[in-house]
Amino acid sequence: MPPLDSQALQRSLSYLDWMRSVAAQLGNRYEDRVAPPQRLAMMRGLITEAHSDAPTPQLSLQLCMAGDYELTGDLGAGRFRERRRAGDLIIGPPNQPILLSGGSRAGIDMLIMAIDWDDVLAVAESVQSAPLADFGPLHAGLVRDPPLAVLIETLWDELQAQGALPRLYVDTAKQLIVARLLRLAQARPPRPSAALAPWQLNRVMDLMVARFNEELSVAELANAVGLSPFHFTRAFKAATGRPPHRRQMELRIERACAMLRKSELSVIEIAIAVGYGSPQTFARLFRQLMGTTPTDYRRRGGPAGAPAA
Fold first, then answer.
1. In whole angstroms, what is the distance from residue 199 CA to residue 181 CA?
2. How many other β-carbons are positioned within 10 Å of the β-carbon of residue 65?
3. Neighbours of 281 (CB within 10 A)
4. Which of 128, 191, 245, 263 has a Cα at 20 to 30 A from 35?
């Protein structure tokens, strides 16, 4: 079986293009059906070995239609090993390597769907205010949900038809699928999260320090260590005792403290230098962390109570 190695997977701009290239390399045969206006693609084929997928901007749903085999995987939320049977789904997050290994000589009938992540966000934003990075606990292992499987199977059949009615069905089914995923993610309890490995923490901290004055997103930090944003946030907090955005703020304020002590820049100039466009925001966060204002900190030459320089 191929090793689970995310380093060998180069980012692809399209899940469909990626699957076509893999099929050509491995000799797999897939039938694909595409709905361009809806930016949705589906594929179905018989394989004997599961394979890893490169990061793409799409959400992928892999439904096992027939088969029975041991699957080892990592979708960005930690490695899992489960018995996979007909009806089991793999929900692959966007912009994340999908590492899979396992197979069956009897063959595995796979039905795969890829939805552009912008379309997923459009549906999510219509029903919830919190930003959606991924589907969290659904990426921790196999998912079994008969209503979702029926939606995917029916959508495959509809994509073969022509005319306005099938197009309407595709658009509606896509919304129902995203809504169902949101409900499943809310209902499934997250599994206990392990802390970041030392190399992962070192890599993230190096990135945070090097770009302390930039707005690093959780997705960018997670991608640096091969994790989904959901799992990364929990693993980072398990390793450091604080969420990523808090540590980013601490690094900025630490740098601001050094500049207040050692430079003659104004408070506004320092605020801009450490990445805060608003002096008011800088002053508020500085007080929140240091217990005093930037001006008083400079006047005292350090933390409150410290002797002046």
1. 32
2. 16
3. 11
4. 128
pLDDT at 36: 65
CA distances from 92 to 48, 98, 261 (A): 20, 6, 48
Q: In 3D, which of 245, 199, 251, 247 has the Cα closest to residue 226?
A: 199
- Domains located in the chain, CATH noted: 6-187 (2.60.120.10), 198-300 (1.10.10.60)
Interior angle at CA 153, CA 67 and CA 53, nearest 5: 60
pLDDT tens string 256-277: 999 999 999 999 999 999 999 8
Handedness of CA 145, 141, 108, 159 (dihedral sign): positive
Q: Which residues contact 238 (CB under 8 A, 6 or more apart)?
A: 193, 194, 195, 196
DSSP letters, 176-225, are HHHHHHHHHHHHSPPPPPPPPPHHHHHHHHHHHHHTTTS---HHHHHHHT
Query: What does the block give as tokens for 124?
Result: 């999510």
Which phi and psi (to 5°) does residue 129 adopt?
-90, -30
